[in-house]
Amino acid sequence: MSLCFQSATTFPKGCYPSLEDGYKTLRCSNAQLTEVPRDIPNDTNRLYLDFNQIAYLPPDAFRNLPVLIELDLSHNSLGQLDATSLRGLTDHLHSLDLSSNKLVSVRKEVFANLKARTNLSGNPWMCDCELQELIRLVDLDPGSSSAIVCATSVQEEHAGKPFLQVVKEVDLCNVYKRTTDIAMLVTMFGWFAMVISYLVYYVRQNQEDARRHLEYLKSLPSKQRNSEEPSTLSTVV
Question: If you classify domain 16-170 with CATH, what class do you get?
Fold first, then answer.
């Protein structure tokens, strides 16, 4: 059923309003959009931006949509989400679809204030501690969780495996911690070796200087040598 929202008389190009199950819906699916439209009516309940070429979400892109309960961004080209990308989406949001994008890694802070059930499947995820912490925070869509697959991983043998299977086998955050600890130990050992090498060089250089000076004194006539030996001995001591 088509309608005109009371808050707007025009709509973004390629977008069509409707009333579905009593919710004001704006469908912008497959509209060849490269960015989120700016003139979305602020009383929109459901927004479909799927099957477009949106690669970036500007800060506060959805701030003026206070009654939005469903947002579909699936099948786009999103490669990253900044801390402000989803800012403005309120507790009213019940469903967020980010499936089939190009997300490799997302910081958990991006979802810190969201309670929406989220679909993250179909992205080329890097399975590491950051993704593990993100999955712990997000309320995953139950039907999509098994389709979160590791395109790459901190451990190569896990590439191509479902994420939930990987975390049953290994705690990725412990792997990261061990790797960090080893790196710190190697760095400390390197500095320690440099200090020891410098001290050895310093001692050997002083010994060589002292030996040369003594040889020089021996080459002097006996009278001059006797007058310089006390100062040399005091210097060596």
Answer: alpha beta
Residues in CB range of 20: below 8 A, 6 or more apart: 1, 46
Give the start-to-end residue ranges of the domains of the chain.
Answer: 16-170, 181-236
Q: What is the mean pLDDT of each run of 10 residues along the chain (237 residues)?
A: 51 92 96 94 96 95 93 97 87 94 95 92 96 94 93 92 91 66 47 61 66 65 55 45
CA-CA distance, 62 to 40, in Å (whole number)? Answer: 9
**What does the chain look like in DSSP terms, one character per residue?**
-----TT-S---TT-EEEEETTEEEEE-TTS--SS--S---TT-SEEE--SS------TTTTTT-TT--EEE--SS------TTTTTT--TT--EEE--SS------GGGGTT--SEEE-TTS-EEESHHHHHHHHHSEE-TTTGGG-BEEEESSGGGTTSBHHHHHHH--HHHHHHHHHHHHHHHHHHHHHHHHHHHHHHHHHHHHHHHHHHHHHHHHS-HHHHHHHHHHHHHHH-
**What whole-number distance in Å separates Cα of residue 135 and Cα of residue 148?**
10
Q: Is the dihedral of CA 87, 93, 94, 95 positive or negative?
A: negative
Q: The whole model's pTM is what? A: 0.71
